[in-house]
């Protein structure tokens, strides 16, 4: 389980540098956003007050990276794995709820249980490799944290 958790954390961290939307759509790579941020206390305070979702999103990468470092050094932390994976899963749920609310407000059709399979098949047409790596890695890392890591003694 430890090796799987390490691979999941690698996928999450790799998602920081990979495109989140498929070519042909708007190019969004989270690392481009991070590079533009001013590393100051004022910036963090402004993000916390204006866009706490963005701060939580970026924190999932930091937590996954910290878990990865500790796991490679031989001290995997279930708490860090839970926070990184759980944060990613929570952000995915939050984003889906927000999209549903916005689609309802605009009068757009929502996928039903009958068309959920169609929705899942069309998702890779929009979501890039970074989004898929981050989401998949987050879900697997959360499961690994819930199952636990056996002792290496």
Architecture overview:
The protein has seven helices and no strands. The protein is mainly alpha-helical. Helix 1 (2-14) runs antiparallel to helix 7 (129-147) and helix 3 crosses helix 4 (52-72). It has helices at 2-14, 30-36, 41-50, 52-72, 78-106, 116-126, 129-147.
Features:
153 residues; mainly alpha; 0% strand
What portion of residues belong to β-strands?
under 5%
By DSSP, the count of extended strands is 0
Name the overall outline.
Answer: globular
Largest sheet, strands/sense/barrel: none
The SSE string, one letter per element, is HHHHHHH
Radius of gyration: 17 Å
- Runs with pLDDT <50, length 5+? none
What is the mean predicted local confidence, pLDDT?
Answer: 84
Percent helix, as a range, is over 70%
In short:
With 153 residues, this protein is an all-alpha fold.
Topology:
Blueprint: H1 2-14, H2 30-36, H3 41-50, H4 52-72, H5 78-106, H6 116-126, H7 129-147
């Amino acid at each position: 389980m430890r090796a799987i958790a390490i691979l999941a954390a690698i996928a999450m961290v790799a998602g920081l540098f990979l495109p989140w939307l498929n070519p042909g759509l708007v190019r969004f790579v989270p690392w481009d956003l991070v590079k533009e941020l001013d590393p100051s206390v004022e910036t963090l305070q402004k993000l916390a007050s204006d866009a706490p979702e963005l701060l939580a999103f970026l924190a999932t990468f930091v937590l996954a990276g910290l878990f990865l470092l500790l796991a490679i050094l031989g001290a995997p932390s279930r708490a860090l794995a839970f926070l990184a994976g759980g944060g990613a899963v929570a952000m995915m749920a939050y984003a889906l709820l927000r999209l549903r609310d916005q689609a309802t407000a605009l009068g757009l059709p929502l996928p039903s249980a009958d068309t959920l399979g169609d929705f899942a098949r069309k998702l890779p047409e929009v979501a890039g490799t970074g989004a898929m790596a981050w989401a998949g890695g987050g879900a697997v890392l959360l499961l690994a944290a819930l199952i636990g890591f056996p002792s290496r003694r």
